[in-house]
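Quick illustration for those who missed Monday's session on complexes.
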Amino acid sequence: MLTVILKKEVEGVFVDQFYSFNSVLFPSRIMNASGPLCTWEQELNALGESASGAIVLKTTTFEPRAGNDRPKYFENEWGSINSNGLENLGYKKYCELIPKLKRFNKPVISSLSGFSLEEFTTMVGALDQAGADILEINLSCPNIAGKPQVAYDFEMSEKYLHTIRSTTEKPLWVKLPPYFETIHRQEMARILLKNEVNGVTLINSLGNALIVDPEKEQAVIKPKQGLGGVGGKYVKPVALGNVFTFSQELENKIPVIGVGGIYTGMDAFEFFLCGAQLVQIGTAYKSQGPGIFARVQGELNELLQRKNYARIEDAIGKLKVVEGEEYGFGA
Ligand code: RRO
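Prediction with RRO bound:
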């Protein structure tokens, strides 16, 4: 097995208008999150034509899936809830699409989730062969009834990642759910380091949450009695906390990809301050479409200029601790 060696000094370097991560060149640090508007060929082409720094595909499964019953998506001013249920074309179809997506000259990141370890390894082998630049192992889909998220089972996560790592030389990212205890973040960071993963995407939606319509006195989505994964503004502080702790625990050996509540350049900046090297946009991309990537990039550039940062690298991981009493009682 060839181990992709991550050296702090080569990660995130800006080379000829591209950022290099895992020896893969990204035209921007801002891209779509796996989930919204990245299932069908037309949506993937639109991402290719947009300013998104990569084309991240909807999590694929072994077999094609129609997903859960509708209505399975709802959005309000604070964010979204989904119970998509892994609606996707199945990995064989994505293996056909990936070579075509290479014409856009940006990384093609294939997200996948197996219902068994064998399904994972078969798909990893095929998507690697098809030309995916990075494989994002989704251990955190919250919406399959009776299938708990693998990432909340540390023993199983370790077993899965160990085996998957030995089946491919391609960069492996792992998509994780939010963790709420420091010790859980530390334990998962240890597993990621031990199994030589190359990126960690934080966070998936906040699982098994509920949004209620008080007028109709009912849940806003249908599957699983209305329970689903929440994203958007609702989850940004949870995402930032996870990004911050994981960045510290991983000591820059594994880049963190931040996701959860990015609507503006300022939101993206907060993720970079907390240690994210790259960021992804989910809920806001779904409601605003592919134009969002250029807008957020433009806002970030303006913000950096206003704050006298020559480049975003200078702000990454630079979150300060509070000194004095600026945020004390009465502030
Ligand atoms: O398809 C989904 O229901 C879904 C997935 Br795979 C995921 O990873 N996260 C999410 O919020 N929804």
